[in-house]
Amino acid sequence: HEIEVELRQASAEGTLQLYYQPIIDLRTQQVVTREALMRWSHPTRGMVPPGVFIPIAEQSGLIAGMGDWAIAQACLDAAKWPDGVGVSVNVSPLQFREPLRLVQTVKDALLAANLTPGRLTLEVTESLLIEDNKATLELINELRAIGIKFALDDFGTGYSSLAYLSTYPFSQVKIDQSFSRNVNADEASKAIIEAVCQLARRLSMNVVVEGIETEAQRMAVQLLGAQRAQGYLFGKPEPVSEFVKGESRKR
Ligand code: G
Ligand code: G
Ligand code: MN
Ligand code: NA
């Protein structure tokens, strides 16, 4: 409970941060998108991982305000990046339970940042889709009509129903890092990555393979048909100040 009070305070005071991790195009090696990952630097506990504080935010209702903030801040940050670089934001299933609020948040964020809607992707997990209600599909379609995109996150970890890929209009499917971890040792991981890449291509979706840490993994997933990848090999989640510094060094 104490941690909930402190999270409420951090959210109200604006001390939460967004870190960004690059998603790269394997063919061109260019950054195509940056995924926003929320961070809470606690004055005494240090960095509290989102795996700890997001569930607390969901149970307490704080996720609504924190989620609004993440979308708004990510759009403001992305507006300063080159035109070709998009931003993706993780969205909790609870944010989908307030459809009017989510639509308004997205519209306000795009307008305030003057960001082209096509540069914003919302990442959702299968837990949202299990409920399988018409309202979810309608909301996704309403947001797509604004011009934003959707990615299915952590694919392969939950029910991974192939029906989700045909029922919902995703632009991107993100294959969970558990598959890339074993890609060079395990035939099953290889087969799954290859099959999902083929399926995604047939459905005109991009594939991002998550958790690429080594050159050997990068080569393997590219050979299996992946277009995009994310992982420590290309960059860790960092605050804007870090990669802006890195980019100006490169110039
Ligand atoms: O890097 P990492 O430990 O940052 O992220 C762990 C998990 O926390 C991610 O898989 C993601 O699902 C979740 N997460 C990170 N940032 C956000 C956010 O802004 N909103 C939501 N809903 N989840 C997030
Ligand atoms: O939203 P999602 O569940 O996909 O969040 C991605 C999580 O994976 C974050 O916690 C992020 O810090 C973590 N991550 C990103 N790249 C790597 C990687 O190369 N290796 C490992 N072990 N974790 C990663
Ligand atoms: Mn994600
Ligand atoms: Na993931």
Task: Please name the defining characteristics of this protein.
alpha/beta, binds manganese (II) ion, globular, binds guanosine-5'-monophosphate, 251 residues, TIM Barrel, single chain, binds sodium ion, EAL domain-containing protein, 47% helix, 11 helices
Describe, in short, the structure shown:
The protein is an alpha/beta fold and 251 residues long.
How would you describe this protein?
With 251 residues, the protein is an alpha/beta fold. The chain has a single domain, classed as TIM Barrel (Alpha-Beta Barrel), CATH 3.20.20.450. Helices cover 47% and strands 22% of the residues. The chain has eleven helices and ten strands. An eight-stranded mixed beta barrel has the order 1-2-4-5-6-7-8-9, surrounded by five helices. Helix 4 links the parallel strand 4 and strand 5. Helix 4 packs parallel to helix 6. The longest helix has 16 residues, at 63-78. The radius of gyration is 18 Å and the shape is globular.
